[in-house]
Every structure is written in structure tokens, then in C-alpha cells.
Amino acid sequence: MKREAIFEFFRRLAEDNPSPVTELEFGNTYQLLVAVVLSAQATDVGVNKATRRLFEQVKTPQAMIDLGEEGLKQHIKTIGLFNAKARNVIALSEILVRDFGGEVPADRDVLTSLPGVGRKTANVVMNCAFGAETFAVDTHIFRVGNRTGLAKGKTVLAVEKALEKKVPQPFRVGAHHWLILHGRYICKARTPECWRCPVADLCGYKPKTLAPKGKAKIA
């Protein structure tokens, strides 16, 4: 996809959703970090259901430590891999209290050193909490980047690096939100809804899916 097409691609997504945000629910940076750790191999909807009551009770790393691993498990037992995630959340909370005064550091390298925090999680926190121009590549962004031709790559890191190189201002902070939402609701894995896609004419995906009966094509 050429530079002019990439700018127009994001311009249209931004026009539809000028202020994109994560669909994870949180009240502060620490809760965001916990929510993103819990969201690995889980849906945002499922995580939000599990964390609503948890976050009413737990707002700081120390409060999480006080709740304890078994107490945390009772809140998140509906989420996949909850045993390992509970262990990691308690461990990272202890590190935050011990080494960072209970605050989440605005440093991707430091974040990725915490238990259960990979590069994608760190990128989400850096972007959503600190406004960094990071690109958290999940399965949706990986698919959209490759399918559209926007950012091709055989690995998640390759797609991330391609986005870092290609996404122009003023779209860099919001880019990963637009791409996730686009992949989640329009450019779906099994049947992309090309018939209602605002950027279909810019996309390199050839077998465009037609509108189902009774559905009008987007003008």
C-alpha cells in the first residue's frame, strides 16, 4: 500500500471514530496493566466481566497483594489460564510496590521485565496510559496488516515494525485502536465484511465478500 493510500486509510477510520479507545475497562494505569495481562488469550468482554467487581475492591498493587492469589483467582476464574495469570499479577504487583513505589513505570523495557507482561501488553500500556506511539499487534492487527497490504509480515514483530515505519501523523497514537476495532468488527477472520468496509477500495484483499441479502452496501 502506497503512502497516499495509507494516509487515506487512516483518515477514513479516524473520520468514523475520531477518539478511539481500548474496550478494556479500567480506572487507572495499574488496573489497565492488570486488565491487559488478563486479556491474553481471552476476550475484552470476558475480562471486563471478571474485573468489574475486582476493580471496585482493588485499585493499587498493594491492594492486590492484600487480596492475595487465591482471592484474585475467585474473581478471574472465568478467564482462561487464570491460575498462571493470578500468579503473575501478584508477582508483578509485588515488584511494583518494592521497586517503583506502587507506580507503573512509563518504560516499555521495564514493563516487559514484569511477570506476565510481553511486548504487546507493554505496548498497550504505553499507548493507552502514556500516549506513546506504540503498535500493539494482536491477532486482529496481524490479520488486517497482512490482508490489506498495509503492513505485511510473517511475525507479529515484523508487522509491528512495518507499522512503525508506515503509519503517518496524526494517526500514530490511535492507529492500533482503529486497526483492532476494524479487525474485530469488519475485517473479520472468517468472513470479512467488505461490503460495509470504509476502506475496501484501498485494500489489497482480492476476493471481496458481497453484502448478504437485505444488507445495503456502504456508499
Question: Overview of this structure, please?
Answer:
- The structure is a single chain.
- This protein has 219 residues and is mostly helical.
- The protein has two domains: 3-19 and 135-202, Helix-hairpin-Helix base-excision DNA repair enzymes (C-terminal) (Endonuclease Iii, domain 2), CATH 1.10.1670.10; 29-130, Hypothetical protein, domain 2 (Endonuclease III, domain 1), CATH 1.10.340.
- Helices cover 55% and strands 0% of the residues.
- The protein has helices spanning 3-16, 29-38, 44-57, 61-76, 82-100, 108-111, 119-130, 139-148, 156-166, 175-185.
- Helix 2 (29-38) packs antiparallel against helix 7.
- The longest helix is centred in the middle third of the chain and has 19 residues, at 82-100.
- 36% of the residues are buried.
